[in-house]
């Protein structure tokens, strides 16, 4: 739903799912963290960049701790956090985080993996927009 731009509706649905998931699976369960990540992206899409950064930072840290920093889910949160930081205006930190995400993805998934290519595209956009 958030891919179509209806971020407010998506956020409300993710909020409900997140509350249920926290109660039934636990706060740091991979599925709960997935919902949290998506809810934060929906907040970012609505312009609530500060809250998005806060939630994504927590989600990324939890995923790194539980799954490791090289796990694909950790990279998804790292990518989303970099994007939210860029939207917040913290371009230097965003670019470094995105570059690290891309480099880790190259090592773990391979240079031609669709996720790696997506992270490279996001990095190229960040570099283009800051120069």
From TrEMBL:
It comes from Ditylum brightwellii. It comes from the Eukaryota. This is Kinesin light chain.
């Amino acid at each position: 739903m958030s891919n179509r731009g209806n971020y407010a509706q998506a956020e409300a649905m993710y909020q409900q799912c997140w509350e249920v998931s926290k109660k039934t699976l636990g706060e740091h369960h991979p599925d709960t963290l997935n919902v949290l990540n998506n809810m934060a992206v929906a907040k970012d899409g609505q312009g609530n960049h500060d809250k998005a950064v806060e939630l994504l930072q927590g989600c990324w840290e939890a995923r790194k701790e539980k799954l490791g920093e090289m796990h694909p889910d950790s990279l998804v949160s790292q990518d989303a956090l970099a994007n939210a930081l860029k939207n917040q205006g913290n371009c230097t930190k965003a670019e470094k985080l995105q570059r690290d995400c891309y480099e880790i993805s190259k090592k773990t998934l391979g240079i031609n993996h669709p996720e790696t290519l997506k992270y490279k595209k996001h990095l190229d956009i960040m570099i283009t927009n800051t120069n």
